[in-house]
Amino acid sequence: MSTELHSKVPVSARRRRRVTLLGAVVATTGVLLAGCGSGPSQIGAAAIVGDTVIPVDVIQQQIDSYVAKEPQGQQELQQHKLDQQSRTIVAQRVLHELTQIAAKREGINVNDADVTKLIDDNGGADAIAKGRTFDAAAVPGVVRDQLVREALGLKYLTKLSVVVDYTSAASPGEAQDKAKKIAADPAKMAEIVKADASSAATQQGFGARLGTSVTAAQIAQIAQNSQTGQDGQDMSPLLGVRPGTVVAFAPSQQNAGWIVAYVRKRDTNSTVDMSTVSKQLDPERAGLIIGTRVLQSLADDIGVRINPRYGVWDSGALALAHSDEEKTVVVLPPVRTMAP
Question: CB of 244 within 8 A of CB of 251?
């Protein structure tokens, strides 16, 4: 990886292992339908993941449960501000379905004792569920999903790599403009990088380079080493998209700069020399970071459809956004040309 991306990250201590909220599951989330030419019906569906339908009724039941158990939920109901929680719940269920599919495909099994230990280490199910959109009964599923993602990420930590061309942008608008130009004509990337390489604004950001090789292990190391309070540089969106895709994102909440990258190659059979990675790398954190991006790639392969009442699927963030304009990661797929 380029020294420019490495040079801006201070070293930090190993973090305490916690239960994350990504892909939280509550009870049975979906109904598997027999495949057909047109796919499962969207009638009554909050979301469709591959051939699995997540019903609107199931989402509403969880919203009702959240409102009943959380004072904040009652306030949001009175103020008509439950939209964000609804998007969160739909995203959690989508990610649970993706996690289950990935576990089956990759042959990942989680030990019940490990689930129990992580729950106990975090104060028990009631403590974990407090203030969340799920209840205590759902916590074992939440934890199981986390452990699956950790195992999934560790499996690909030394196997996943990408080759990218990248440049910097000072604002979301500039990032989107560059991303659209590159997606429309990838050949323009070399021209943009050449122009940006001498730009003072770009030099103050993340630089601009062609043909940079990035491994999953390096991405995980950057995320761990760049911790500043609760913030860090997350380069992982580079890992979750198909070759030919343009991706634009802000790696840090504390830094206004954006990265715009064209992914030339994505390899899941690389052989990474782990001697180049710090021995202080936190395996659980690394697993979650990389496992999440494997889920992103899976979502792209099998398809995720969202009922517009809940918003739109933000594939790069693995979440729901209110609209396309509010996506936190811009992902523009490879341009498809008509056959002659």
Answer: no
